[in-house]
């Protein structure tokens, strides 16, 4: 039935109805109505379509498609600016749309849209980039050297992936009924991306090979639930789990969360950090060594040499971007030959590049919870009036605020400033140099509502969940990194109430303005990956196989670098030679009519996506999407997609040039691709 009233009209029979109920219920009456849902029968395997969920396009959906006005790298010519599209007459009353590239000395070159297969995003802004000459003479030596390094790195990456696939790990499949009871204690629907990430993790655990997966999900998007279910799967399979977090504050919150979920199943959760007493630490270590304790949450104390596990099956590293290289190496050592799950809202550039290149498996949670609203982000000059206005506004709506300063020595002067202009505000101070007990007491007093404002350093950056806190004021934001600012902003707006982030700066440098503008630009839920990608864009990836910072990565840009590295790792031979485009000389216009797709930026996007298609199936999907977006394809648009199909076929057959005339067709093949007739 399509309607509830129709389905319930006759209570003396069974009826089926498509409705997104999370669990069954009974409607009382003379003839009670019993409703059984898919979740009651299938548990976590039930699919929830979530018709109310908003769909946000992820920042990486078409990360390899260059945009107008950005710096790009043309594989045959070098660095240029993509100036836009330009229509040129081709004789006989016909015309073509070309891509206009600007090189050094303001030399412009027009290339066909199919050349977008050779054009990759380099940077969102030109900045201080030195463009190459249009003839490619300044480019080829740099490209050749960088390609050689990529081939070496690709072989190392292929070896790493091969070794990882050869290593064995226990196949961990939890008993169905008890695992489903654990899942049923999650009070929300999983989002589409969250459900996929959970499936990816469960598949990894059951594969018989060590999992090495990074979960990239924005703040408040449900990464912790993925970790909880992974932990449940491992513990219910008889193994132990260690969860590593960067701060004692986050450790305390995770311990409370994990204990609440595991307590009904008689599974204890231990804690290892500097806030624990000596006796508690000894008891936890003994429990892990004997196997009595199955789950432990800890800080760097988990890498202690005297810590022994009876049967460690999984290591979870939360907020991986806050761990240093040495700490990560120790945690990786702890996870050697067992399963490892890394989680981050804004992964550091090297981690992101490694995930894109295949160094680690990557799952992305880009869809926000249904109730999540974007945090209103404002950049303004720093002043006492601006601080007081933001804090008092939140107090008036009975909420709480964070007030963040970059240094400990900034806190006392800031406290005096705020008290002088807003004496009625109840303020508690917090920083990492306080005794552990004081940190806990002050944090809990804020959580329990005993204070209006938490004045702190970025100690509150990681993972805290305080639903009543819906305003954050960051003073001197130019002294924080982009990822730090995004994490701080993620402390508010977790309860479905409109939240505000005020970035108050006294810097007038152009660079600071651009960096803070990124936070304003990416203010929607799910912006963490976009900010990390922009950080990758601005800083470069470094070497994914070592701690070496940006070198040859800067030659190609991070997106093309990751692509070439992945190609090199999949085949030891020189795959960059495969990056060529068949040249088609056809009697039809190879373009989308401007009257059909009116936006130049959208036409450029479609040209780029078509150029990236490597199969007819991909092209069919894109053609179908285009017709849904803009209506039935006119003849010229059908010709455009037909030419794209022909180009894919030519590439498969090794045809580098195809000339189609009225009476004949001439094909030029790659050397060695045309068989000689006997």
Automatic annotation (TrEMBL):
Ranges for domain Helicase ATP-binding: 204-365
Task: Tell me a Gene Ontology molecular-function term this record carries.
Answer: DNA binding
Which residue ranges does the record assign to the Helicase C-terminal domain?
Answer: 386-537
What phylogenetic lineage does the species belong to?
Bacteria, Pseudomonadati, Pseudomonadota, Alphaproteobacteria, Hyphomicrobiales
Pfam families assigned to the protein according to its UniProt record, in alphabetical order: CarD_TRCF_RID, DEAD, Helicase_C, TRCF
Provide the leader sequence positions: none
Keywords from UniProt, A to Z, are: ATP-binding, DNA damage, DNA repair, DNA-binding, Helicase, Hydrolase, Nucleotide-binding
Q: Which InterPro entries match?
A: CarD-like/TRCF_RID, CarD-like/TRCF_RID_sf, DEAD/DEAH_box_helicase_dom, Helicase_ATP-bd, Helicase_C-like, P-loop_NTPase, RecG/Mfd, TRCF-like_C_D7
Q: Any keyword Acyltransferase?
A: no
The lineage's top-level taxon is Bacteria
Q: Which CDD domains match?
A: DEXHc_TRCF
Identify the PROSITE patterns for this entry: HELICASE_ATP_BIND_1, HELICASE_CTER
UniProt-recorded name of the protein: Transcription-repair coupling factor
Give the GO biological process terms. DNA repair
Q: Which Gene3D superfamilies match?
A: 2.40.10.170, P-loop containing nucleotide triphosphate hydrolases (3.40.50.300), Transcription-repair-coupling factor, D7 domain (3.90.1150.50)
